[in-house]
Amino acid sequence: MQLKPFQSGTIIEPFRIRSVEPIRFTTMEQREQALQRAGHNPFLMRAEDVLIDLLTDSGTGAMSSQQWAGMIGSDESYAGARSFYRFEAAVQDITGFKHVIPTHQGRAAEHILFSSIAHPGDVIPSNTHFDTTRAHVENSGAEARDLVIAEGRQPRTIHPFKGNMDLDALRATLQELGRERIPVVMLTVTNNSGGGQPVSMANVRAVSELAHAYGVPFIIDACRYAENAWFIKTREDGYAGKTPLEIAREMFSHADGCTMSAKKDGMANIGGFLALNDDELAARCRSLEILTEGFPTYGGMAGYDMEAIAQGLYEALDEGYLRYRIRSIEYLGEKLTAGGVPIILPTGGHAIYLDAREMLPHIPALQYPAWSLNNALYLLGGVRGVEIGTIMFGLQPDGTEKPAALDLVRLAFPRRVYTQSHVDYLCEVILAVHEQRAHLPGYRVVWQAPVLRHFTARLEPIG
Ligand code: F0G
Hints:
- It contains 16 helices and 14 strands.
- By secondary structure, the protein is an alpha/beta fold.
- The protein has two domains: about 30-50 and about 320-460, Aspartate Aminotransferase, domain 1 (Alpha-Beta Complex), CATH 3.90.1150.10; about 65-315, Aspartate Aminotransferase, domain 2 (3-Layer(aba) Sandwich), CATH 3.40.640.10.
- The strands form five sheets. A five-stranded mixed sheet has the order 2-8-7-6-5, with helices on both faces. Strands 9-12-11 form a three-stranded antiparallel sheet. Strands 1-10 form a two-stranded parallel sheet.
- Helix 1 packs across helix 14 (about 370-380), helix 3 packs parallel to helix 11 (about 305-315) and helix 6 packs parallel to helix 7.
- The mean pLDDT is about 95.
- Ligand F0G binds near residues 58 and 223.
């Protein structure tokens, strides 16, 4: 008997679940109260009031048995711990960078880097700076300039690498300001604030060549380097036969260093690093690290955190895992698109981005359509996402407000946490909100902080 192989449409999570964490079901009335207590700001809600928590993919993933095994055997010595050398070896093996400076998370690496190299009047180009990166650049008095390609700003234009840097714009900026005013060129892979969109190897190479032609160092924001490697493997000519590890190594080989939040593709709950090739800059950064993070062989992490990352950096590059992860996001994207829900296309690496401005044309940008959509997802289904729009980016340094480029709700997936049935439920919730979209209210701010207001602002629905 000849049996033909069959193609399964089911996304099989490439792991067995041996430890479970209950999630709590609530009524719509309970959720209304929870949202009110939190000033209608999901950041201020208690996590136990959330059923499916897609606030972030940062530090929220499930660790593997191998990671836990490493953690049990960690070395907690203050100086020279074995766990540090394991961590350092993993980072060097994957990135090829000479100096590995551990930090408690990604923004600490940004703080150390920009405090060491950026000055008032400087400009730091990137495809799109993440909000903490932008805040650290601006905190040093420099300007954070986003130069993503035009397609990267158009939610429904299909392009395989919408995170790419606009090379003409970068060239013009380098020509105009030179290395005197550009201490570093950054590139965020994948481009989180631009929809989790990947950057091609060709673009990484070209950015590197341009920056170096002007004598400017090139630093990668590497938070989601493994997901970016997967997109290069599956979308860019010449990479189908390479492993994600080989692709990651090639990506890093074009740069002079990276900042990293190990809470993403480090598969850890906390941690990060700054990695550099330049001896002198690394020495200055280590001095600052001692001041703000800790001794250079732990830098704000416990030995067990470094063990988790040393293992996690490789697990993030596993092909079975990457296929499941990227396919889960794509699967949800397909269902939403079929249901008429406007999302950023093509779907990116770690999240679905709902286009609230498009979905809710009756809510003006300064009444925060994405905020409203996000709260409706919680009210109807206990789902928590995050607004990436006018509340996050609209407040100007002089206190005025203008609409952000886009008003999006990001639904970011913790790594290895949710299954296909969670995703199916989520899809039902989004479709139910979409059906009732005409009834969603605008919001007004009741209280806000002068910077990074989205974390602590209190709002209320209008009418
Ligand atoms: N760079 C990017 C591209 C990020 O996405 C983040 C964090 C950071 C830097 C800062 O790292 O949180 O470890 O200090 N992004 C999280 C998010 C918070 O939800 O997207 P961190």
